[in-house]
Specification:
The protein is about 30% helix and about 20% strand. It is α/β, with parallel strands linked by helices. Helix 2 links the parallel strand 1 and strand 2.
Length: about 200
């Protein structure tokens, strides 16, 4: 953990990282949605090997301070998803998540694992604020899985980044708007009364 904190400090990122298990905490409500709605954050593949921006990491840290947060970590397992055979490229076999999360789920392809959806349902989440890298692939795939599960996916537009095809994420954002409609333009809008972290 110390090396992760040391690596983030030169970037000006301040996240509370600990080796202690995170305490169980209730979901936090946001005043921007109806009282019946329970919200969480999904941080998609914000990991060292994908080199996310400092702004993306910092913004997710701010959301994590207010919302229950889950994250995915993409690791290569050829038997599970044949990236090498089909694309001639593979994600890393080991990596680390760069944002604090209440629970991290390992995935081996574009889709988040089924256990992630089951976990969010168990916590009675009804809306998921989605952030992450590879907006037009992995983030969009997460949106489809959440949508099909009835867990209203909402993309946080300023906390996403595209792939090498479209680093700006504009293509993914356009696809997200077309398929799901729900977009929060800035993460700050989700933190109306929260102090700066």
């Amino acid at each position: 953990m110390a090396d992760l904190q040391a690596g983030l400090q030169p970037l000006g990122i301040t996240c509370a990282l600990t080796t202690q298990p995170l305490p169980k905490r209730p979901l936090r409500e946001t005043k921007l949605i109806t009282p019946e709605t329970r919200s969480a954050v999904l941080a998609v593949d914000i990991q060292e090997s994908f080199n996310p921006s400092q702004a993306l990491i910092s913004g997710v840290c701010k959301l994590q301070s207010r919302y229950y947060t889950v994250a995915t970590l993409e690791l290569h397992e050829e038997e599970a998803v044949p990236f090498a055979a089909q694309l001639g490229w593979t994600p890393p076999t080991t990596d680390r998540c760069l944002v604090p999360a209440d629970k991290i789920f390992t995935k081996h392809g574009y889709l988040p694992p089924r256990q992630l959806v089951a976990h969010l349902r168990q916590r009675r989440v009804t809306q998921v604020f989605v952030c992450g890298v590879q907006t037009e692939t992995c983030v969009l795939a997460a949106g489809f899985v959440l949508f099909d599960a009835g867990l209203k996916p909402t993309l946080v537009a300023d906390l996403q980044a595209g792939s090498s095809l479209d680093p700006s994420g504009a293509l993914g954002l356009r696809l997200w708007r077309h398929h799901f409609g729900a977009v929060a333009e800035t993460h700050g809008a989700l933190l109306p009364e929260a102090p700066d972290v």
